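Why predict the complex rather than its parts? Because the way molecules touch one another can change local conformation, and only a joint prediction can capture that. The input here totals 815 residues.
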Amino acid sequence: MTIRRADDGTIHLEGACPVEDAEPLLQLLLASPKSPVDWSQCQKPHTAVVQVLMAAGAVPTGPCGDGWIAKWL
Amino acid sequence: MNELQQQFVTEARELVRQATDDLISLERDSTSAAHIDRVFRAFHTLKGSAGVVELPAMTLLLHAAEDLLTAVRGGSVAANGEIVDLSLACLDQVSRWVDDFEEAAALPADAGEAARSMAERLRTFLPADNAAVVAPAPKVTAPVAKGETADWVVRLLDRSRDKIAEHLRSGTTTLHSIAYEPIPGCFFNGDDPLELMRQVPGLLAFHIEPREPFPPLAELDPYACNLRLQAIAASERDDIFKIFRMVPDQVRIATVPESALPSAPVSAKPAQDASLIHIVLEAQLELLRVTDKPEGLAGRIGAARRTALNALRSGGLTSIADAVERNDAVSDAIEQALAGLTTSTAPDTPRTDTGDRPAERMLRVSEDKIEALVNLAGELIVAKNALAHSVKATGGTGDAALRRDQDAIDRLVIELHGSILQLRMISVAQVFRSFPRLIRDVARQLNKTVNLVTQGENTEADKTIVDRLFEPMVHLVRNAVDHGIETPEQRSAAGKPEQATITIAASRAGDRFHVDVHDDGRGIDPSAIRRRAADKQLLPADELAALTDEHVIDLIFAAGFSTAETISDVSGRGIGMDVVRTAVERMGGRVTLASKVGAGTSVRLDMPMTISMSRIMVVQAGGQSFGISMDAVSETVRLSPDRINRIKNNEGFVLRDQVVPVVSLAELMRLPVNPAAASRLFLIAESGGRTAAFEIDAIGERLEVVLKPMQGLLSGARGYAGTTLLGNGQVLLVLDVKEIMP
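Output of the joint prediction:
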């Protein structure tokens, strides 16, 4: 599992987040829309995962662990 | 075959057809950029799809054709007849391969060889220098017209002006814009659009946004891609294309014209304004969020509102400004204004590929399913008729509610049947579409120049009719080009333009459907027909002499008649017009012809709009019921026996100055003939220009029925148009009046 919710409520995206992660991420965000999202440990998030973040209007904290994403998104 | 391959087959056929149309239009108007572009695009898309289903031979051939079209588009090669011929041959080849692929999921073994030799031929038309430098890598269409840059490109350039300026100082690579709109199902295809973008070398600017506004989160389908990715990159077009080679249909790559580069910020101002207003508004929000100094809050609110209003109004965004003014909650108002600002200045990606027809939303349903529906509706009609029968059997004592329900069911069934038949209505465009090519080929073969005008392509008729229309029309059109139209020399000698015109027009007239084929050729000379008919002994000399000119012209529909002096490849094998008449009459239609010597010939096919429902009349003869199509029945008459004259072995009577022969239907059907009564009942029928009176015992009801063709052992039986089920379950034989005519 590369998507998890920490005890403080923060949703963490870690490692490679493949396309399958889009659904659990969406579920977490639906359950608590205001949760902070931390993607500083995330590598190569799939487009579907990024799309869920965009649709939720989530502004992840910190730069993305993925340099390309951090630079361009 | 998997779904992707099936989709390829369908699309490839469509593209071949479209490219054929456009090539012919291009030949007519060789300078039209729109036609060239469309032909090019069709070839290009075909090539891309062939690559996706891994057909290298097809890709190779289409690639060569595309190179040639690139040269045509660039103006270095003129789109002459030879090039159009070759491109059409190329499409024919592709079309055959698509058929092979559909059948065997592979191309024939010699496909590679065929592709190479045809590609060689295509390349001989390329200018020498061009042929040498043709890159093996595919070219990408440039959707943006010269001198015109998409708004989003301008915005992206503006946003990354520093980076771009830096690049311009150091690098020499041309800038390319990439607009990538992944299809919604792309995730299921294993695509990761960001991953593709990541591979683009020399990326200078990148933007990602939803294609449609995102729905509320609860309704979001996380696996449907709703994104648009845009980028500017300093890299070679071919390198970019290689990255997107699997999604050629979803990506548009264009060269960024120098005029659009930041050194010449032409249209960058509005974008700049919008971003400036954005900054001002955000600063106001920031100001309002400062909560640790409550003392100045009221003043800050007022100041923030005024600043926001000024910024918005100066930017010409008065409607947003008004909304802010009306809203008492200033920070909410500013937040809303910010949101409004984003949408109102959101990149409106215009469709840059001008000339593209807007895609119609269509549902593809297999013909079998429609056919099953039509059959069911037909059976429902029978059930409806049976219900009517049962209600009648209650002898009028049935209660009112039953009758009311029956009326409602009647109406609904008829409506349902009508709507289902509508599903089978298709436009004649698909039949008409074959003719530009046909006429062009035939005319070139005969060294004639013919312009085709089509009218009413959108007229709809039942699929069966439209499908069967092709064969008679091919004969008509070939005849027109071969026999009707003179050689250019003959035409100019006759004071006509060298280019002849053939008009094909479809139209509706009530529940009939007309197709007219008109040519402005030499027309039909009745005296030539008379000579030919006499030579072929089609009619005895005295009968022939008695015919009027109109009737003489009608003789060309007779079997075995051909007026062409020589038998050509094109037509004139002594069949043709009789085939036309038979084919049209089989559909319940009529053919009429009008011609004027020197001015041309018009042929009209008059057909029913649908053939699924027939109106019939039930008649009794020899103790049996028969159906007769109402189309053939002109009237019924009851006569006293003394009105009937016996001429040798035949009976007949005079009706409105015309002698009408009498045929006893019972006798014809080998049934016992009823003894003569006080008056005799006749049904006057007309077919093929002849009239006859069929003697019958009684007339029954008139019905709308679904006619089933004779099947099995009876399929060869002559004299019957088909069968239908009556309400009481009885099978009714429906007579084919044309075949039983004396």
